[in-house]
Amino acid sequence: MNSMFVVFTYGFAIPSIYLFTIVPMILITAVDKLVIVYWNKPVVLQSDLLSRSFLSVLKYAPILSFFCAGVVTTGSSGIFEKVQVPVIIYRSEITFAKD
Questions:
Q1: Distance (Å, whole) CA 46 – CA 74
Q2: Of 83, 73, 86, nearest to 10 (Cα)?
Q3: Region of residue 73 (left: phi > 0; alpha: psi -120 to 50; beta: else)
Q4: In the chain, what's the furthest Cα-to-Cα distance?
Q5: Per-residue confidence at 31, pLDDT binned at 50, 70, 90?
Q6: Which pLDDT tens digit goes with each residue over 52-86?
Q7: Is residue 6 within 8 Å of 14, Cβ to Cβ?
Q8: For the stretch 14-34, what's the b/e string if a residue is b when 16 or more beta carbons lie within 10 angstroms of its beta carbon?
Q9: Other CB atoms closer than 10 Å to residue 42's CB: what's the count?
Q10: Is 90 helix (H, G, I), strand (E, B) or coil?
Q11: Is the entire prediction scored with pTM above 0.85?
């Protein structure tokens, strides 16, 4: 889940990050399927209504994530331009009145 968060957060700005996440996602999916098949015991009184309603909303998450990441990265022009921002050093010089 952490890798998916990182991919959807920074994937628009760093497209190669999608390639680096394919292998972990395949391994996670395979291990999850094995765990479900061999170690998960089905609950007798469990309805799939909550799962289906959650998945119906969750299918729009990547689209929303791409939109939000696109808005954020296009909002900061420093990502696309090679302009160095000058460093501002704030100095606080306190002077006391002389009596």
A1: 45
A2: 73
A3: alpha
A4: 86
A5: very high
A6: 888 888 888 888 888 877 777 666 656 556 666 67
A7: no
A8: eeebeeebeeeeeeeeeeeee
A9: 6
A10: coil
A11: no
